[in-house]
Specification:
Largest sheet: 7 strands, parallel
CATH architecture of the largest domain: 3-Layer(aba) Sandwich
CATH topology of the largest domain: Rossmann fold
Strand order of the largest sheet: 3-2-1-4-5-6-11
Radius of gyration: 19 Å
Oligomer: single chain
Shape: globular
CATH superfamily of the largest domain: NAD(P)-binding Rossmann-like Domain
Strand content: 15-25%
Structural class: alpha/beta
CATH class of the largest domain: Alpha Beta
Number of strands: 13
Length: 313
């Protein structure tokens, strides 16, 4: 197929682009490059890259000509950046998604996969069991509210205009070449440099860390679904932040101390105490669910990003 990826130079988007190119698809990437370019040279040379903002309607329409499917992954990411830029965050989400839908209708693109987030569950995550797609969501931040709005907006286009839409709710995706706006690479950088590993709060807050390769495999297996779907992509394993810090410290043989600091006030609504997702629906739809353990994923990151660096010291 010919496939457009918005945000295709980002962490998840670049990994998806590499997989789709290797699978033999013709790939177009639209990205503003405001947060850098994570596409490796080989992948970049095998696709059509368009530099631009997803909020530019005419550019999105032009980029999607002749396309069979759009992966709409463009977004403002990173808790600190999102918290400090709520207007831009919502504009990128709402205007960008409207442009993608308009482009799909004008160019007769039949299918959109949208990158949503487990953040829309927010404080509903206190339920004892893993979060299913049927749980009543509780978005409280600009980012989460915009994501939930877009899920509903896309579903409405399916109901009225028969657009095939798949909204995937990512649960704490991590992997090699992720930048330090995210907790895993930040802890790695601190550990490698033997600096204090800084944990917000008491470190007992839990997350469901899903390895990037599992995330991409899930997306690829979902990409040909017809209809309208909201699907969690989760590992179904609950780890607290203290565990994460200890794993990374051990993996890197670091002398760092784990220290605890108060979370900045602008992070309050993002700091939920518990988050673990159910992949039951993903399994039912595709016969697949993420299986990489946190320890396995961290070992892979260490070997890929840091092992040679430390040996040279």
């Amino acid at each position: 197929m010919k496939i457009l990826i918005t945000g295709g130079a980002g962490f998840i988007g670049s990994n998806l682009a590499k997989r789709l190119v290797n699978d033999g698809h013709e790939v177009v990437v639209l990205d503003s490059l405001l947060r850098g370019n994570k596409l490796d040279k080989d992948t970049f040379n095998k696709l059509l890259f368009i530099k631009g903002d997803v909020r530019d309607r005419s550019l999105v329409i032009e980029a999607s000509k002749g396309v069979d499917m759009i992966f709409h992954f463009a977004a403002v990411l990173g808790v600190d950046i999102v918290a400090d830029n709520p207007v831009e965050t919502m504009d990128v989400e709402v205007i960008g998604t409207r442009n993608v839908v308009d482009a799909a209708e004008i160019n007769n693109v039949k299918r959109i996969m949208y990158a949503s987030t487990s953040g829309i569950y927010s404080h509903s995550a206190i339920v004892k069991n893993a979060l299913t797609e049927e749980v009543l969501v509780d978005p409280r931040t600009s980012y989460a509210m915009a994501k939930r709005y877009n899920e509903i907006y896309l579903a409405s286009h399916h109901e009225e205009r028969n657009l095939n839409v798949i909204s995937v709710r990512f649960f704490n995706v991590y992997g090699s070449n992720q930048d330090n706006r995210m907790v895993v690479p930040r802890f790695f950088e601190q550990a490698i440099e033997n600096k204090p590993i800084t944990v917000f709060g008491n470190g007992q807050q839990t997350r469901d860390f899903t390895y990037i390769d599992d995330t991409i495999e899930s997306c690829v297996r979902l990409m040909n679904l017809d209809g309208c779907h909201i699907v969690n992509i989760a590992n179904e394993a609950e780890w607290n932040i203290n565990d994460l810090a200890a794993f990374i410290k051990k993996t890197t043989d670091s002398m760092s101390k784990i220290t605890y600091i108060d979370a900045p006030k602008n992070r309050y609504d993002y700091e939920v105490e518990r988050r673990v997702g159910s992949s039951e629906k993903l399994m039912e739809l595709t016969g697949y669910k993420p299986l990489t353990t946190l320890k396995e994923g961290l070992d892979r990151i260490y070997q890929y990003n840091y092992a040679n660096q430390l040996q040279l010291k």
